[in-house]
Design brief:
By secondary structure, the protein is of the alpha/beta class. 32% of the residues lie in helices and 26% in strands. It starts with 5 loop residues before the first strand and ends with a helix.
Length: 391
Amino acid sequence: MLEGKNILVGITGGIAAYKICSLIRLYKKAGASVRVVATPNALKFVTKLTLQTISNNDVYVEQFDIDEYRPEHIALTDADIFVIAPTTANTIGKIANGICDNLLTTTACAFTKPTLIVPAMNNNMWNNKFVQENITKLENAGYKILHPSDGFLACGTNAIGRMKEPEEIFEATVKIFEQKIQKLSGKKILITTGGTKEKIDPVRYITNNSSGKMGIALANTAAKMGAEVTLISTFKVEGNFKNIVTETAREMENAVKNNLAPQDCIIMAAAVSDYRAASYSEQKIKKTDSDRISLELVKNPDILKEISALQSNKIIVGFCAESENLLENANAKIKNKGCDYIIANDISRSDIGFNSDENEVYIIDKNLNTKHIEKDTKQNIAVKILEKIFE
């Protein structure tokens, strides 16, 4: 569940800070990348060198304590989750009231993805009226709070206020991702992928360079997010979804229309051939003495445009692969097709797109609002596409 995730760990000045070394090791063992932002007081309980060594990353403390300044509180927000443990009463109060007086609280203010707060403090502090009001305020705002346990506290008493153990924080982190990833539960999504093949004769056909990787990533991701997925592809694909294999544009058109009715969303990620041979030769076309041969082509059906005109109650998503004038062509395409979203990518680049495991896309809606998704794995791009179109 945490494989490939970027986790930002925040550490504040409590005695339980030393336990976070174990938490970081658990995250790393699970395949996550970990960065640490600490308050100056946190480093009185655990050293910066220790945290750097365990996380294999720099530890961020002061906003301006760097050779070349950049807004670190914004740069750190590209993580998938912010886990603040231990979280003192002081830091809870600051976050709940928008106070940004150190790098950790400033980052928390700018962070828009899930934040898990793990309080640790004396029982009298935990039961303080204002601390509880701040906890309630944070919970109402969508923050995840892992409430403290009863146990032996640093002050020598057995009472509530003890930070949850690293294993419990780890499990809470996993649960947040599980809840996030099931956000498409109950949705039905049809996805097309691969490059169609238009036969000329028994041995020749017209096709394109599409590998189908983006569509497969979307199908796998949507299934993991709880959706019931139908993948119409130009080759067999194994996965936790229904797979229908087609070859030509007209076969894909029929498969899409035959499975259209129950869907909540249709994502046309396939590279459908614009043209096909006007006539198919039952026998192999022989080479002649002529230096040239003419092949008459006719237009294939425009599946995206057809279903966009028919299905006003469904989310329709098209793809736009361009070698020049990417956004200009994508804007023109969404107007012409009438779909809800266009996912545009630049196929002139060798590091993304066709046959690559990475991509960089623009998500454009029918009002021409544009969201840029920077270069990332196609799996992570798929998550961001699905989150955007179902937000």
